[in-house]
Amino acid sequence: MIAFLDYGAGNVRSVINAIESLGEEVRVVQTAEDILSAERLVFPGVGAFGSMMNILNEKNYVAPLRDYLNSGRPFLGICLGLQALFEGSEEAPGVRGLGFIPGLVKRFDIDLSVPHIGWNGLNIKKPSRIFTGLGGNEKFYFVHSYHVVPKDDGAVLTTTDYGCEFVSSIQIGNITATQFHPEKSGSSGLRILKNFLETSEEQSIPVRSAQTTRLAKRIIACLDVRTNDRGDLVVTKGDQYDVREKGVVRNFGKPVELARRYYQEGADEITFLNITGFRDFPLEDMPMLEVLRQTSKNVFVPLTIGGGIRDYRDKNGRQYKALEVASEYFRSGADKVSIGSDAVLIVEEYLRTGRKTGLSSIEEISRVYGNQAVVISIDPRRVYVRSPDAVKHQVIETTIPGPRGEGYCWYQCTIKGGREGRDLDAITLAQVCEKLGAGEILLNCIDRDGTNLGFDLELINAVSEAVSIPVIASSGAGRVEHFYEVFTLTEAESALAAGIFHRKEVPIAEVKNHLKGKVEIRL
Ligand code: 1PR
Fold it and tell me: pTM surpassing 0.85?
């Protein structure tokens, strides 16, 4: 029996699912006494350091946790569950951590995109039973803006390179804690969890061939989901956002089954977009929550969900905050939420008033769950102009001229799945969203969607040069070469595709085989 510390923030369901998939039973800690009497304790942390410590303090868990750690019984901390062991964090000045390990948690101070999101390797510093069965070159899923800095190296189990060499896990006796998410790291992550759960004392140190670790470019499978005319929830796919063929919604199968297939085929991440979320209310649209619950039972890579994340008033007049919608998604197994239409309206309001309210979905969700949990999904389309100063928007020079030979364009933001164009450009949208707390940009392109013509590299370059958060290139992938192109000609950290995977035209393994040896990827 594993005691499991759930302090109520974020996606702990996937950790429970991962442990249960290994045949162990989990008991969620309900009281301080449950911590004191635990024999093995798992503490997955998600969200922000300050709110985590506040909740631990409110629940009177801090002293029992310290006692547990000092007892030397097996403990596994994950992500914030590692950071909590330290004295404090730059993320929440003045808030005290558990102080079990001397040192602080610091924000990345590097030239690369922050958060550090994605699959990276481990430099192993000492033997541990946690490594049994690993080859040493595996990659694990990270998502964080802060990293631990112990006062001395004694506890350091692994380091990872990302603009600097940072501590990615620690071990002191039976106390192990990782910055990466084993529960989101596919079979290698499950192996680490299994090693923790087993009591073997055998210590192992895998041999790694590379000198430094490198963040992999991610291949993301995207499932656009909606109810078809017969009332079934299906994965569909549009051509320039039109999902109907001869009047009928295209049907590529069931979301849970397809997600599982993509996991098995090697997708680094899976995104569900509830494409009619702008008119449905997700908390009434229970099937999407169920899709997440079912998917997270056997898909152990990160899951993002988008569609309908916004404030909402139901038919009885009750007001719901976007934060509540997002919380329900996180509880059901999502790691990140993606905000589309609402982000456009928030940015318009910000540009009108010049003020942050602190109350927008982007600000509230990132405050509680951390920036990395908030993805902004942009649905832009090209608007051609004759000169760079023809409009007030951020205009780019293009090598693909417009219908009247125009040499410039701007990227108009749309809402409601491309149905309504707004007076706002995608570059400005991305910049303001970053300022408001977004952690990643999912950059679609209506002109390229479903065309198989390749990604809009000009759009991707324009946006990724304007922000410092990671950009996911989306729309238009048709061949393996398009992935190579987007990773070598732009700064995109991931590439997302839908149609070619659904139609089995280009399997994920083929994309990875093509990239192998040329672009850093997770094999
Ligand atoms: O506005 O917060 O409710 O979120 C709605 C979400 O649904 C947004 O993320 C929006 O992008 C998405 N969406 C709305 N309508 C459509 C549609 O297609 N009619 N899908 C839609 C967006 C675009 C990509 C697609 C790539 C790759 N789909 O996700 O998967 O373009 O496709 P490809 O590889 O086949 O070219 P809100």
Answer: yes
